[in-house]
Design brief:
Mean pLDDT: 95
EC number: 2.3.1.-
Order of helices and strands: EHHEEEHEHEEHEHEHEEH
Number of domains: 2
GO molecular function, one term: acyltransferase activity
Largest sheet: 7 strands, mixed
CATH topology of the largest domain: Aminopeptidase
Strand order of the largest sheet: 1-2-3-4-5-7-6
Radius of gyration: 18 Å
Organism: Bacillus bruguierae
Number of strands: 11
CATH superfamily of the largest domain: Gcn5-related N-acetyltransferase (GNAT)
Enzyme class: transferase
Keywords: Acyltransferase, Transferase
Helix content: 25-40%
Number of helices: 8
Distance between the termini: 57 Å
Length: 252
């Protein structure tokens, strides 16, 4: 029988444990920046929990109070799941981690747990496992984004902004908006910059500093990464250099 263990990262064990993503490249900029980002978030109530099978990583979950969340969603007294990723499937590990987030939310007297999903990308968690765990969809946004909630309090439902088109109008030149919440942001940025250089396009990079900027500027609910060119969304997830060139040519 497999031995299953949950390991919660904190200031004391982060250096030894490290984050789940890009763990095979511990000297990469993305991995280093993610761990630095985590170190500054634990005091805000962020939880980063790895699930281990026979001492080997099987997946992880990351969640935090909504007022510190890296997702573009409004609401009060909710817990927000940023990421859920499982590599050993079919054993209920995703549900086990979701139940842990719900338990923590209840112990902190939250009114529920919310998550953003999108069937068009693997950069967000899968919707099906949350529906299975009594989440329901309460809002949607362009580009396929869905807002799900497991609600056990009486707060009004959380919701997305409605001004997505207006946000795109803020950026005419090629602009990358990002935070370090995801370790793949670094390579994602580099791929777009390389593609833009090949096409002779100047790239502006905006490192979002706080949640107020995130809520005001982000072109999608995903929040931590968005590429805009000529008032059009290029991408909210990683593109290869080739794919970025193709997408930018469509907008030139």
């Amino acid at each position: 029988m497999a031995q299953v263990e949950l390991i919660e990262l904190d200031e004391g064990n982060l250096k030894d444990e490290g984050c789940y993503c890009l763990r095979s490249k511990p000297t990469s900029t993305g991995y280093i920046n993610k761990n630095k980002w985590l170190m500054g978030r634990f005091d805000e109530g962020l939880k980063y929990i790895k699930i281990m099978e026979n001492s080997k990583p099987a997946g992880f979950i990351e969640y935090t109070p909504i007022e510190y969340s890296s997702r573009v969603v409004y609401g009060e007294n909710y817990m927000v799941i940023h990421c859920l990723w499982i590599t050993i499937t079919g054993k209920g590990y995703a549900s086990k981690l979701i139940h842990k987030s719900i338990q923590d939310a209840k112990e902190q007297n939250k009114d529920g747990v919310i998550v953003i999903t999108n069937p068009n990308t693997s950069w967000t968690p899968s919707k099906d496992v949350f529906i299975k765990n009594n989440f329901r969809e309460v809002d949607h946004a362009p580009y396929g984004f869905e807002l799900l909630v497991n609600k056990f309090g009486h707060s009004p439902d959380s919701y997305f902004p409605k001004d997505w088109d207006e946000r795109l109008k803020l950026f005419t030149g090629l602009t990358i908006l990002r935070t370090q919440q995801c370790p793949f942001v670094d390579v994602s940025t580099n791929n777009v910059v390389e593609a833009a250089n090949k096409l002779g396009i100047h790239t502006e990079i905006i490192d979002i500093k706080n949640r107020e900027e995130l809520l005001r500027l982000s072109p999608t609910p995903y929040g931590i990464y968005g590429v805009i060119y000529k008032n059009e969304l290029v991408s909210y997830h990683r593109l290869t250099v080739h794919s970025a060139i193709k997408r930018l040519k469509e907008l030139i």
